[in-house]
Design brief:
alpha+beta, Ribosomal Protein S5, domain 2, 5-stranded mixed β-sheet, 4-stranded antiparallel β-sheet, single chain, Alpha-Beta Plaits, binds alpha-D-galactopyranose, 2 domains
Length: 372
């Protein structure tokens, strides 16, 4: 018997899922109209769903929660659902706002994307619910519009002021591909990223340092970027030049803007190298430079993150950087397959020396986006 059958006493109409993501490079560029280069993870959120037998009620259950959450699909609005189920209710609301059909449903949620690790478990849940609603309504999935709907749920229903990278990665991800996204035009290009054929691995080190997007720091960075763009008289930092940024008087704003401008350039450089089919080892220094920029200019790293990044490099990684919103979360390292264990052990030892809980390590493989 499936979890859905145990919970609801009948089989589901189908199971849909969407992946978490790691961002290879392009951090805090998405809300500046810039470039990002994430990949869909081989860790997902699954939604088993069926039309309800109790009209007027959508019921959401999860294997992580004891109590179901209930709301009405036809009337649910921001502020009415709190906690974990707001990601689900938010998508139902955003579906309705987009003029798409929403019926009440029974949903059972299960997932293996670590929560609070900066791997976009929330976007994976949102996108899994979006494709489930589409499947039940028998309407076609359109990747970019669905990513917009999922992001609207996150921004306006959940209240997290994120950019659009995570939902686009969850919708557009593909096996052995990076999702190169121009967030201004929403153009997507899939870039080959088959590390195994080069005897390489992307090691993810979940530092388990606490990480929260709804708290103020993320919003403060967004605000700094908007202020810098206004001072530079450009629509967004995407349009700023390094020379113009260097002339900003305010030291903090100068550093924030410099991160965004140099990070956009690094994304384009990485794409250029990978597109040309060159050895992925060549992108290592760009990953490391991205970390230094996040640490020194954007000021979003924390000691757990910096120690993991420095230790991975010292233990032989070709490049390493924090991934995601910052203030904790995960570090990624580009390593020889043969060195995965040695790098992991080195970081564990560095953590043990400081009396910190060990990080959780796994290798990431670029995987499929949302679907049935
Ligand atoms: C979080 C947000 C994204 C993006 C990153 C930073 O993951 O959800 O939109 O801004 O932070 O690159």
């Amino acid at each position: 018997m499936t979890d859905f059958e145990t919970a609801f006493g009948r089989p589901s109409d189908g199971v849909w899922s969407a992946p978490g993501r790691v961002n290879l490079i392009g951090e805090h560029t998405d809300y500046n109209d810039g470039f990002v280069l994430p990949l869909a993870l081989d860790r997902r959120t699954w939604v088993a769903a069926a039309r309800t037998t109790e009209p007027g009620w959508t019921t959401v259950r999860s294997d992580r929660e004891d109590q179901p959450v209930r709301f009405a699909a036809s009337t649910v609005a921001p502020g009415q659902v709190a906690g974990w189920a707001c990601y689900v209710a938010g998508v139902v609301w955003a579906f309705r706002e987009a003029g798409l059909p929403v019926a009440d449903t029974d949903l059972f949620i299960h997932g293996d994307v670590p929560v609070g690790a900066g791997l976009s478990s929330s976007a994976s849940l949102e996108c899994a619910v979006a494709v489930a609603l589409a499947g039940l309504a028998e309407i076609p999935v359109e990747k970019t519009p669905f990513a917009r709907i999922a992001r609207r749920a996150e921004n306006e229903f959940v209240g997290a002021p994120t950019g659009g990278m995570d939902q686009m990665a969850a919708m557009h991800g593909a096996p052995d591909r990076l999702v190169f996204l121009d967030t201004r035009t929403e153009a997507v290009e899939l870039i080959p990223f088959d590390l195994a054929t080069h005897d390489l691995a992307l090691l993810v080190l979940d530092t388990r340092a606490p990480h929260q997007l709804v708290d103020g720091q993320y919003g403060e960075r967004r605000h700094d970027c908007a202020e810098a763009a206004a001072l530079l008289d450009v629509p967004s930092l995407r349009d700023a030049t390094l020379d113009a940024v260097g002339a900003l008087d305010d030291r903090r704003l100068r550093a924030r803007a410099r991160h965004v401008v140099t990070e956009n350039a690094r994304v384009l450089e990485v794409v250029d190298r990978l597109r040309g089919g060159r050895d992925p080892r060549e992108i290592g220094p760009l990953l490391t430079a991205s970390h230094e920029s996040m640490r020194d200019d954007f000021a979003i790293t924390v000691p757990h993150v910096d120690v993991a990044q420095e230790t991975a490099l010292a233990a032989g990684a070709h490049g390493a950087r924090m991934t995601g919103g910052g203030f904790g979360g995960c570090v990624i390292a580009l390593v020889e397959v043969a060195d995965v264990d040695a790098v992991t052990r080195a970081v564990e030892a560095a953590y043990a020396d400081r009396g910190w809980e060990p990080p959780v390590a796994f290798t990431a493989v670029a995987s499929a986006g949302a679907g049935r």
